[in-house]
Amino acid sequence: MTDSWEILGRLAADATFWGDVKKAALSAPPRPGANGRSAIPEGDYKKALDTVRNAGTGLKDQPISLMALGELLVALASNNFRAALDGLATAIQHTGMNTVGRDFNFYVALGAMIVDGQLRGQLLSAPPYKPFDTFGFVRVLPADRADLVKLGDANQSPAVAAAANTLCGTVWHPDCNLKVVIWTGHTHPVANP
Question: How far apart are CA 42 and CA 98, in angstroms?
């Protein structure tokens, strides 16, 4: 899951990364079939993996899950998501904060804060930002914690908080009911009994 959060955080905070992903023109997954799942061909997965590894600063030296790439492809297929992501990226840029070239944990935490408004609210705190530790973001650097709180706080960055709420509502559902067949033999999530 953290790779999915990192990808989303980079898309929102690194204009070069988002621009490179847009230029890649990744294929949208086909509509769900009779089994209720979208089938993503292996070639599309490989193109998405190559794009994410080489876009902007990239995610070159870490594993990237099939789920993260499937989620990316499904999200990018939504024009509402793409427009909302553009809006969030613009709002973050307008803060004047340097969000490029940060430690990868900054992007992981940012992505998690984008898709989970409750988590965002829980992480808002004052130094030494203990809620980050409570929720497992122990490796987020102190300076990054301060910047994440500034971005997530509707009082400090109202446009960012509003844009994050809009983005979250475009393709994610509280049940996290994304069912994608990456290619034969790889399914996420396992079908419920």
Answer: 36
